[in-house]
Amino acid sequence: MTTLWLILWPVLFVISAGTALILRHHLAQVRRAIRHLALEQDIASTSSRPAIVREIYGDLHQIAHRQQKFAQLIADEDFSLRAILGSMVEGVLVANRDLTIRLANDRLTKMFSLSRNPVGRTVMEAFRNHVLHQMAKRTVETEVPQYAELPVDIREKDGFVAKQFQVTSVALRPPTREGIAGILLVFHDVTEVRSLEGVRKDFVANVSHELRTPLSIITGYLETLLEAPPDRATTKKFLATMHKHAQRLNLLVDDLLELSRLESRRLPLKFQAVQLRTCVARALERSDSLINTVGATVNVDIPNEVPVVEADQVKIEQAIFNLLDNALKYGGKSGLKVWISVRRSDSDLLLEVKDNGPGIPLTDQPHIFERFYRVHKDRSRDAGGTGLGLSIVNAEYPGAPVACIPHSAFLHSRFTSSASPLPPSPDQSERSPNVGFLGQEHCLPVSDLDGHDS
After folding, report:
1. Do residues 429 and 306 make contact, with C-beta atoms less than 8 angstroms apart?
2. Phi, psi dihedrals of residue 408, rounded to the nearest 5°
């Protein structure tokens, strides 16, 4: 018996050692497969391995397949989230309960001119705004949506720009537990909307004022005539004054209707071959009586080689007439001189109307395109202006708005208009019209540019 055990022990040891080595080899392979799974690498085939090892490898393959599906699902959701946030016009921010920012889209960064994405910082650190911080804090504490309009001064290259933001803050509640996981803030830039609302309110107030002034004068004179009819000469004077203000009311209503039609784009431009010399001649003909009354000198300099341009002739004529008319009305001194010239500038023609009048102060120049804006209100009303002229000019050719180039505060006036010469090609449809007022130097008060090729 002892001899048998002495023989069996080495055999059992060899068998145990071999089995241990085989198990170690397979366990090492399983461990390597698990490591590949953790590193998201491919797992080797299992066809030549024992059944138990093949089952383990089969389970690992299933885990790897599910892991790939989850990774693809996460990638798809991340892509969708980024696409949605990137295409939004609103700024979006997600923060934790401690108000540390977890997510912010690029639009938010641009809206606030942030130097870098605010992720990782608190709301207070990123925006330095106590109202926004208190709003976010209140959302976390009450779990109730908060709404506010936030005035913010945004730093830009040349200084600070005032903007208005509508901010909505809501709590984010996870489906698996009670309480909130964080908050969502949405920023909507309403600066332009508020600006338009202000323009609308100012416009209504200005229209009311402009209508009330002549109506009050007409009503006052009528009441005087009804209560105690004066002598014939005084009555005639009253009637003349009422007629003057009635005409001003009619002009104001016409300008308002014209401005409305232009802004609704209901008046298409009628392009045709136009001789600038003819347009200038017709404008001078219409202004002849005013030139004689004022005693002004008008000098015209149009070279013979000036080519034909493609433009709306009626509006060009009206623009030249209005520039000339305003120069004559607001020249403000004897010995007034007006120059009308056409010259080449690269591939364009420049039509200039300038005078030696007083011009516009630099402080007023940024506002001359606003509706009803006047530099000298009394003098403008006496001359029959409505204050809508440059607003109409800006609306006539939306592709080339009028610009004011400021120089010294009080100097002569100079208006320039650019027009492309008409090419010799017989195919009119291939021509691209380029007619528009590019700018004005030493600006003149312009009250009634009812037609303009801007």
Report:
1. no
2. -75, 165
- Fold observed for domain 271-441: Heat Shock Protein 90 (3.30.565)
Q: Supply the angle between the helices 51-87 and 2-38 in degrees, to the nearest 10.
A: 10
Residue ranges of the chain with per-residue pLDDT less than 70: 1, 5, 40-41, 43-49, 262-267, 332-333, 360, 365-454
Cβ–Cβ under 8 Å, residues 280 and 309:
no
12: CB partners within 8 A, 6+ apart: none
DSSP bridge partners of 353: 340, 415
Residue 224 CB partners (closer than 8 Å, separation 6+): 230, 238
CATH H superfamily, domain 89-189: PAS domain (3.30.450.20)
Instruction: Give the pair of three-digit tokens for residue 289.
Output: 């009586």
DSSP string, 315-354: HHHHHHHHHHHHHHHS--SSS-EEEEEEEEETTEEEEEEE
List every span in the chain annotated with CATH 1.10.287.130. Answer: 197-263
Give per-residue pLDDT as tens, 365-412.
Answer: 666 666 666 666 555 555 555 566 566 655 554 444 444 444 333 334
Three-state DSSP class for residue 400? coil
Query: How far is the C-alpha of 453 from the C-alpha of 318, rounded, in Å?
Result: 9
* Cβ–Cβ < 8 Å for 114, 137: no
Strands 337-345 and 182-189: unpaired
CA count, 13 A, side-chain hemisphere, 275: 8
What spatial distance separates the first Cα and last Cα of the chain, rounded to whole Å?
121
Q: Which residue has the tokens 């003909």?
A: 285
Torsion of CA 108, 109, 114, 119, to 10 degrees: 100
What's the confidence (pLDDT) of residue 380?
Answer: 52
Q: Is 243 left (phi over 0), alpha (psi -120 to 50) or beta?
A: alpha
Closest CA to 164 of 177, 154, 174: 154
47 three-class SS = coil
Nearest to 122 by CA among 84, 96, 87, 83: 96
Q: Can you tell me whether residue 68 is helix, strand or coil?
A: helix
Share of the chain above pLDDT 70, in %: 74
Fold (CATH) for 197-263: Helix Hairpins (1.10.287)
| Beta strand 297-301 pairing with 337-345 | parallel
Phi, psi values for residue 28, rounded to 5°: -60, -40
